[in-house]
Amino acid sequence: MAEKILSRRGDKVVYAGDLAVVEVDQVMVVDSIAQSFIERMQKDLAALPKYPERVSIVVDHVAPASTVSVAQAQKEAREYAAQTGVALFDVGRGICHQVLMEEGLAKPGWIVLGSDSHSTTYGAVAAFGTGMGATDIALAAASGKTWLRVPESVKVTFKGELRPGVSAKDVALEMIRTLGADGATYQSIEIHAGDRFTRGERMTLANLCVEAGAKVGLVVPGGEILTLYDVPDWVYPDEGAAYVQQIELNLSILNPRMSAPSEVDNVHDVSELRGLKVDQVFIGTCTNGRLEDLHAAAEVLKGHKVSPGTRLLVIPASSQVMEAAMEDGTLLTLQRAGAVLGTPGCGPCMGRHQGVLAPGEVCVSTSNRNFIGRMGDKDAQIYLASPAVAAATAVMGRIALPGDLG
Ligand SMILES: CC(C)[C@H](C(=O)O)[C@@H](O)C(=O)O
Ligand code: SF4
């Protein structure tokens, strides 16, 4: 799929290892990188965005601003957007990847570059989404193009169906464990899911691909995607395509999984970690902050209370998610159970604000990274899990499965 998309969007047919120069359909810049992006554009390149309608800036990582310097950088990003006509999604609109998907700024066969490593998320709809640094992002905005080495592909296939209580997050964690944290470095993880998984679940799978080092994570379109998008024939992989690695996951034997500190591929069954005392539970992020994730959490939390001594933070991934969860009563269920609700955005995911951890604290999070110091102090510990497991843990105050609630 990577070869096919890069061939189609470039000026020649390319194969793994070749250098491709391709059209870029969307360039996404996050708040934390906006200042260096603007500097590259104005000082180094002395250029305006070639196609302003193909550039968006999202204020999501530290939103609302936490310090004067963050506020100043965001002010400059707003001014830049007003001057150049690029789209600005400001405080509260949500996490960049969720927002781009909701705004229709990532589509099958598109090339979407983001100044954020989890730009692999767009692979959920077969867009070649990948993260790049401020310099490459600025070059793409100024020229409308980018260049990259065509990645080799890893084929991931599934056998059987998930049992109740096991989610796409568990599949994603198991996939990362199987490949290893650097097991797919600069490769394209091509996920053959058949008609399984919703768009949101596919976003969870594609999102985690970068945690195996992948350049891109492409989910072969099927199921719900075919009803939501026009999928061009040329995005599908050819019969007999070449893969450098092939793995098969048997979904029917998968249990709820959890990634223990401090590497994402340190994955265990939740039952092995059960009972560990937890200070904070965080449900949200570009991995698991969507409506279906809040539903899964609310289903577990309904009629229960968060354990005294444990904090439950719930941050919807976007304003649209928040609105839908307000309308259908999900937020009320969560609030009544004792959750603390936050402004749509990244929240404490990368430890900048809204719930950073003290030394020695333990957090169960639905996010995608549990590195040392990721959410605050270097002596805090982060366990990654699904929304249902996170919710059960909040009620018990200890790592738990929904079935433990009785
Ligand atoms: C701030 C941003 C550049 C960073 C990333 O690239 O992923 C962040 O989103 C993260 O998850 O660590
Ligand atoms: S939610 Fe977390 S992982 Fe996703 S973009 Fe924000 S900081 Fe990065």
Automatic annotation (TrEMBL):
Assigned EC number: 4.2.1.33
Keyword entries, A-Z: 4Fe-4S, Amino-acid biosynthesis, Branched-chain amino acid biosynthesis, Iron, Iron-sulfur, Leucine biosynthesis, Lyase, Metal-binding
Lyase as UniProt keyword: yes
Names of the cofactor(s): [4Fe-4S] cluster
Reactions catalysed according to its record: (2R,3S)-3-isopropylmalate = (2S)-2-isopropylmalate
Top EC class of this enzyme: lyase
Lyase keyword on record: yes
Pathway participation: Amino-acid biosynthesis; L-leucine biosynthesis; L-leucine from 3-methyl-2-oxobutanoate: step 2/4
Coiled-coil segments on the chain, per record: none
Residues that bind [4Fe-4S] cluster: 286, 346, 349
Domain of life of the organism encoding this protein: Bacteria
SUPFAM superfamilies hit by this protein: Aconitase iron-sulfur domain
Cofactor-binding details, from the entry: Binds 1 [4Fe-4S] cluster per subunit.
Boundaries of every Aconitase/3-isopropylmalate dehydratase large subunit alpha/beta/alpha domain copy: 272-397
Gene3D superfamilies in UniProt: Aconitase, domain 3
Similarity-based family: Belongs to the aconitase/IPM isomerase family. LeuC type 2 subfamily.
Subunit structure: Heterodimer of LeuC and LeuD.
Task of the protein: Catalyzes the isomerization between 2-isopropylmalate and 3-isopropylmalate, via the formation of 2-isopropylmaleate.
Record-given protein name: 3-isopropylmalate dehydratase large subunit
Organism: Deinococcus arenicola
Source species taxonomy: Bacteria, Thermotogati, Deinococcota, Deinococci, Deinococcales
